[in-house]
């Protein structure tokens, strides 16, 4: 490995790590969704990896188009800003919708009572709740759709620091270095995402699904809203 490639690879790894760690939108939505929907670590990791791959590949595709057309890295700055704004607003909107859905589910599952009349005219209430545990988990359409919505948002969201990193070896015409640097950046980004997302399971020393609570949907909406606000500030 040449000295230049070593420096580029090290720079790509460092940029990818800190970009992921300092961007809560890279991991907070997955932790919140796992808690809300009782996902296992394996399922959470799979969805995180797929969204991370979409996040990276969309930027690689954008960079490849620029390389093919001979465009400079500065050409992508306005486009990345537009994509970033779209992704941030999409995350914010999705978080607010999920918050409303979670509050609705919490209200629906709240303990309540029904009047129970007797033949002698005596009336009393029977209290019960629908939020208890079941033998198996039911998923509605909105729950099944959630990972796909997040995937689309991640694909729309640019990986801004990646563009200049991959453009440098491309300008030099060294496409082997370009492939290597892209692979390092993508691997470190996805590994960092998975490591942070897996922390709640490691902290609890539990390999099973995280137990959902009654307000889990609203908590997820708040988490997504907070993550996208952090993305906008970044």
Verbal overview:
The protein has 234 residues and is mainly alpha-helical. The protein has one domain (3-108, 141-233). It has helices at 3-21, 28-37, 41-69, 76-108, 141-156, 162-171, 175-197, 199-204, 216-233; strands spanning 112-117, 123-128. A two-stranded antiparallel ribbon has the order 1-2. Helix 3 (41-69) packs across helix 6 (162-171). It starts with a helix and ends with a helix. Residues 131-138, 206-210 and 212-219 have low confidence and may be disordered.
How would you summarize the topology of this molecule?
Elements: H1 3-21, H2 28-37, H3 41-69, H4 76-108, E1 112-117, E2 123-128, H5 141-156, H6 162-171, H7 175-197, H8 199-204, H9 216-233
Antiparallel strand pairs: 1-2
Key phrases:
mainly alpha, 2 strands, 234 residues, two-stranded antiparallel ribbon
Q: Segments where pLDDT lies below 50 for 5+ residues?
A: 131-138, 206-210, 212-219
| Pattern of helices and strands | HHHHEEHHHHH
Instruction: State the domain count.
Output: 1
Rg, alpha carbons: 23 Å
By DSSP, the count of extended strands is 2
Average pLDDT figure: 71
Percent range for helical residues?
Answer: over 70%
Give a short account of the largest sheet: 2 strands, antiparallel
- Beta-strand percent range: 5-15%
Strand order of the largest sheet: 1-2
Alpha-beta classification: mainly alpha
The rounded distance between the terminal residues' Cα atoms is 34 Å
The geometry reads as: elongated
* Helix run count: 9
């Amino acid at each position: 490995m040449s000295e230049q490639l070593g420096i580029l690879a090290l720079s790509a790894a460092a940029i990818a790590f800190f970009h992921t760690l300092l961007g809560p939108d890279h991991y907070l939505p997955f932790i919140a969704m796992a808690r809300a929907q009782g996902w296992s670590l394996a399922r959470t990791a799979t969805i995180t990896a797929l969204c991370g791959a979409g996040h990276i590949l969309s930027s690689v595709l954008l960079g490849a188009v620029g390389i093919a057309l001979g465009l400079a890295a500065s050409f992508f700055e306005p486009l990345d800003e537009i994509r970033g704004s779209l992704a941030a607003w999409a995350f914010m909107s999705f978080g607010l919708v999920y918050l409303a859905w979670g509050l609705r589910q919490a209200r629906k599952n709240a303990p309540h009572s029904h009047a129970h009349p007797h033949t002698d005219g005596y009336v009393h209430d029977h209290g019960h709740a629908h939020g208890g545990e079941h033998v198996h988990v039911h998923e509605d359409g909105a729950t099944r759709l959630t990972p796909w919505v997040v995937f689309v948002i991640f694909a729309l969201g640019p990986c801004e620091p990646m563009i200049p990193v991959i453009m440098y070896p491309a300008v030099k015409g060294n496409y082997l270095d370009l492939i290597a640097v892209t692979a390092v950046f993508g691997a470190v980004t996805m590994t960092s995402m998975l490591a942070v997302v897996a922390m709640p399971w490691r902290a609890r020393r539990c390999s099973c699904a995280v137990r959902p609570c009654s307000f889990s949907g609203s908590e997820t909406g708040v988490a997504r809203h907070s993550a996208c606000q952090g993305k906008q500030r970044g």
